[in-house]
Amino acid sequence: xxxxxxxxxxxxxxxxxxxxxxxxxxxxxxxxxxxxxxxxxxxxxxxxxxxxxxxxxxxxxxxxxxxxxxxxxxxxxxxxxxxxxxxxxxxxxxxxxxxxxxxxxxxxxxxxxxxxxxxxxxxxxxxxxxxxxxxxxxxxxxxxxxxxxxxxxxxxxxxxxxxxxxxxxxxxxxxxxxxxxxxxxxxxxxxxxxxxxxxxxxxxxxxxxxxxxxxxxxxxxxxxxxxxxxxxxxxxxxxxxxxxxxxxxxxxxxxxxxxxxxxxxxxxxxxxxxxxxxxxxxxxxxxxxxxxxxxxxxxxxxxxxxxxxxxxxxxxxxxxxxxxxxxxxxxxxxxxxxxxxxxxxxxxxxxxxxxxxxxxxxxxxxxxxxxxxxxxxxxxxxxxxxxxxxxxxxxxxxxxxxxxxxxxxxxxxxxxxxxxxxx
Length: 423
Ligand code: GDP
Ligand code: IMO
Ligand code: MG
Known about the structure:
This protein is α/β, with parallel strands linked by helices. It is 30% helix and 21% strand. The protein is built from 11 helices and 20 strands. The two termini are 21 Å apart. The protein binds guanosine-5'-diphosphate (GDP), 6-O-phosphoryl inosine monophosphate (IMO) and magnesium ion.
């Protein structure tokens, strides 16, 4: 059986924390898309770790962590991540498995990302500049380099052919990107040696066999539904399939094997990078969310834009993914606000609508809010659902009624223990 855990907003919902909490119920945690653009924060043994490519089951003794074929792997970023794990008392290296069919991000993919963003000027996506778009472009364009290629003779020629293509492209884009290819390649080849110390697997065969033996898999999403390449706020999206359907293609698992779909969302909304955001706040409330929620990107350190919960967008995400359980994160951040709001419809080109339209650009969409009573209580030390303030329960029940899906977990802090199970 395979369950999936997905972000329902624009990423950074708290997926890493919840995977770490749920991991003990699974044998395998598997990432199915994204790459070094992800930043999943886990607080373990009082220390904060930010995972980019490594699945969030890594802090558990017995769990196997699979980097699936739908992920793009940057050996340089992965080596840094492994180096950052030196204080992790758990020996995980034999349990971190890399799919041969995962594509590889080369140093020149990162350069192309930077060049493309610079060329876009004001219209830039706000990419994390980790080379994600160019790596998936090469994959879809049938030019990509895969992890399994490293095991084949002649991989350096294949690498060189692709790099030469990238250098020509960089020349065509014609923006001033400074780089020292020799230095970048030294770093890359060194990191490839480290990558090769990890077990490579045929992910789809490995997962088929583990499923046949009755083991349980949790598929860990990166980014969020509104950043999905097909159904997100295009073109301000990432280049992978972040939604539930991505689990199948990103792991080689038939859709009929997928069971529960956990949808993770913040009690408010954040977005990092460019793109429309109807409920974005530019007032004291937004500043307060940013400050109390420490809303800075885990990968780039950029400040995250903050705003009220957008239930129109949340319902859209619930429906696209077929979410069976909701998990509300960072509820503690909303303590002590004068009042709380959530968008429950949009005014769209003169009409009031309750669905997520083709464009949510500010010039077409303005949110229509429902206002809720807030709660003054500090939630961070609450351990049981009976102690949740009535005003918070009212907010949660409204969300359940609006989306038609139960909220099974309320998170009240970054730690494992700050997790309240409602059902
Ligand atoms: P992810 O990308 O979805 O895994 O989320 P990030 O790690 O990028 O961002 C979530 C941030 O919120 C991290 O700093 C977490 O440690 C933190 N966090 C997670 N859950 C909670 C919560 O319930 N309350 C608070 N205050 N922080 C949380
Ligand atoms: P996690 O897994 C939040 C955003 C970037 C940019 C857009 C495209 O931590 O939730 P890309 O680097 O993919 O070309 O960037 O997507 N973005 C994220 N925002 N959380 C993430 O991952 C993100 N990964 C990419 O800021 O707007
Ligand atoms: Mg993140």
